[in-house]
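Record type: ASSEMBLY
Status: queued
Input:
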Amino acid sequence: MRLSWCRSSPSEDRFESWLSRAHEERVLAGKTAPVGPCPGESFLQDLARKAGRIELTDPRVNHAANCPTCMSRLLIIRQENRSHP
Amino acid sequence: MDTIFIFLMLNKRSLGYTPSQLVVNPPAPHTRMTPNGRTWRELTWSWAYSTGHPASDQKLEAAARAAWPYAFLCAWAHLNDHDAAVDLMDHAVHNASQYLTRHSDSSEQKLTARIKSVIRRRARQLAAKRSHELPSGSMRDMEQLQVHHSEEEQRAYANQLFSRLSPTAQSVFEWRWLGYSWREIGGKLEMDHSALRRAYFRELEFVVGSLSPPGESPECG
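Status: finished
Output:
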C-alpha cells in the first residue's frame, strides 16, 4: 500500500507531540549529553523565533535541543514570544 | 614523502569510470576511504582520483566536502540507506570532474551546486529503479505506544527509541522540536520536504516496531 504524504496526518502530529514531550522530559531531567558549550542568549532568541540566519547544521542547534539549561531558556523565550508576539 | 603518480582503471562497481590519474601519498590506500564518522556532518574520506590539475582538484575537493552532508541526507531520504551516500558522491564527483575538465574556470560554489544537483537526480533515479518506497503509512504501532502503556513504560519506550534513531533522524527530530516546519527544513537543506518527512516517519515506524517491551533487554544492534 502506498499512501499519499501530502500533509501531516493527525496520527503523525499526535506522535510528534508525544515524542516532543518525552524529549523535553529526558533533557530537563539531565539524561542527555549535550556537546559543546552553551550558546549565547542572542542565539537562543534567534533559535526560538526561527530566524532565517540560523543554519540547522550549526552544532549550537544540536546543543540547545539537548541541554537542560538551554532548553529551559528556550521554553521560556517561546512562552514570552507567544504572550508578546 | 614523495608523491606517486599512477594511472588506475577506475571501474569499481561498474560505475563506468574512464581511466583517471590517481595521486597517492604512500602508504595511503589507493582507493577512497569509506566514511566512518559518528554523525553525518563529518567527512572522513576523500577521493582517490583527480582531474590532473592541482588547482582544479582543490576546487573539486572543497566542493565535494561541502556537498557530502547533502549526499548523506539524500541517501537517507530517498534510498533509506545511509551507506548509499558513498556511491552517490562517487557518481557526482565523477560527473563534476568531467565538467571541470570542460569548464576549468568554474567556481567552487558552482561545482558544489552541480554536485548536489547530480546527487539529487541520481538518488531519485535509484529510488525509482529500486521501487524503494516502503509500505508505510500505518501509524498503528506508534499510536498504540501512547495508548496502551503507563507513563513509566512510555518513558522507557521513548528512551529506547531515541537511542536507536540514526543521527540524521535525531537531527530532524531536534529541528522539528525547535518548531521548524517540514517545508522550512526542506528549504534549509535543499531537499524535497515530503521526501524528508516520509524518510523520518519511515525510520520512526521501523524503530518503534523493533522496540522491546519495557523490562526486557533491548535487542542487540
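Annotation: Confidence is low (pLDDT under 50) at residues 1-6 of chain A.
Annotation: Residues 45 and 77 of chain A are 7 Å apart (CA to CA).
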